[in-house]
Design brief:
With about 400 residues, the protein is an alpha/beta fold. It has 13 helices and twelve strands. The strands form two sheets. The chain has an eight-stranded mixed sheet, with helices on both faces. Strands 10-9-11-12 form a four-stranded parallel sheet, sandwiched between helices. Helix 12 links the parallel strand 9 and strand 10.
């Protein structure tokens, strides 16, 4: 399926259905693969990471994403998908999707300029008549900021905000199953964006840009606050000598009003804390509930170590940390609280031994060595490899995956 080409595009260049700016990352690449494999669109992934571009062009994933490896190989082989570091590629399409990271800075303030900077890098190649779809999670007002930038650059383009909503590792399912939020200032821009994303799903929700910006932040912050609530519940039960998971199982059993109560565990990764910080900044840091959630979730590694200090002479104890990714089954270590736990233990324990079956790091050792040398084990990431650990050594496991309860 080849979409209508962009008015004014130099036809001497190859024309592609869509260019994804930031396209070789964990959000952009699965999207590009889905558009090529399912929508049969020709896709160009523009990215400044030359190593990732080379990996993708060889038909390989630069990271783990379930169900994406084979469709990527096929799309590259058939010529439906390619990656490039050439900013001029944005001139070859009618449809642009911007999906770059939007981190907080060293002072924990949102970086409002990440999306505009990505467009400024290739501004000379933007063409009138294009549709620019912002997919990054952004601070409220960034869509309007981007619209003003493009107007200042003299580009007559349509702008839509269509936030990504996938869970890492589930993109190749959720891109087709989850409703797509489509937000635009003008009806024409909204109609164009809706038509584009109907390539993936018929479930479209139309909104205003500022509504959609808050919708994405509210959704991630809601999850973060829920995790903070159960983490504090876990600490309460633990301090009283009780197994929180037994209590949670009783609460949620055939009781719909508590069915959404998650288990305890590290609430980490590149999105939840960052987006809670963005929402706090939006309210002028008058977000008591959000700040409380940050204190609980970010303080959980400290709490675990304090409990270890009560039970073991840490200065004489070798501690094994099982799992360094931020979530189960993932090779992504961004903002993983396992590393925070490691830093604290390195200052207090005789030795800290870390392992992860998905993450390659010269500082880590194999699971067998950790199991042999450690005096106590901490399940930091609930990888399936740690299910029902066969060991007589003490295991601290707030997730409950080791099958020994969740008391610390």
């Amino acid at each position: 399926m080849i979409l209508e080409s962009c008015t004014g595009v130099d036809n001497s260049r190859p024309v592609t259905d869509v260019v994804v700016i930031g396209g070789c990352g964990r959000v952009g690449l699965p999207l590009g693969v889905a558009l090529a494999a399912h929508g049969m669109l020709s896709v160009t992934l523009y990215d400044i990471d030359a190593a990732a571009v080379d990996t993708v062009n060889r038909g390989k994933l630069p990271f783990s994403e379930r169900g994406a490896a084979e469709p990527l190989r096929e799309a590259v082989r058939e010529g439906l998908l390619r990656a490039t570091t050439d900013g001029a590629s944005v001139a070859t399409t009618e449809n642009l999707i911007v999906v770059v990271g939007t981190p907080v800075d060293e002072h924990l303030n949102p970086d409002l300029g990440a999306v505009p900077r990505a467009l400024e890098r290739c501004a000379e190649h933007l063409r009138d008549g294009q549709l620019v779809m912002l997919r990054s999670t952004v601070h409220p007002g960034v869509t309007a900021l981007t619209e003003r930038l493009l107007e200042r650059l003299g580009r007559n383009v349509d702008v839509a905000f269509c936030p990504e909503r996938i869970a890492e590792g589930a993109a190749m399912t959720e891109l087709f199953e989850l409703p797509q939020l489509v937000a635009a200032r003008s009806e024409r821009a909204g109609d164009r964006a809706e038509k584009f994303f109907r390539t993936l799903t018929d479930k479209i929700v139309r909104m205003e840009p500022e509504e959609a910006e808050l919708a994405k932040l509210f959704a991630n912050t809601w999850r973060y606050i829920k995790f903070a609530t159960v983490n504090q519940f876990w600490m309460m039960a633990n301090d009283f000598g009780l197994d929180f998971e037994r209590i949670r199982a009783a609460i949620t059993y055939d009781y719909p009003r508590a069915s959404d109560m998650p288990g305890a565990g590290f609430a980490a990764g590149p999105c939840l804390l960052k987006d809670t910080l963005q929402l706090a900044a939006f309210t002028g840091n008058n977000f008591v509930l959000g700040h409380a959630a940050m204190l609980i979730n970010e303080g959980l590694p400290l709490y675990l170590v304090s409990r270890l200090e009560c039970r073991f002479p840490l200065a004489e104890t070798r501690v094994g940390v099982l799992g360094m990714g931020f979530k189960a089954g993932s090779d992504d270590v961004r903002e993983s609280l396992s590393f925070k736990l490691r830093r604290i233990l390195m200052a207090k324990a005789r030795e800290t031994l870390c392992t992860d079956p998905y993450v390659s790091d010269p500082r880590f050792v194999e699971l067998d060595e950790v199991m042999r040398r450690a005096d106590v084990l901490v399940v930091a990431t609930p990888h399936p490899e740690y299910r029902n650990l066969a060991t007589e050594k003490p295991v601290v496991d707030l997730w409950g995956i080791a099958g020994r309860g969740v008391r610390a």
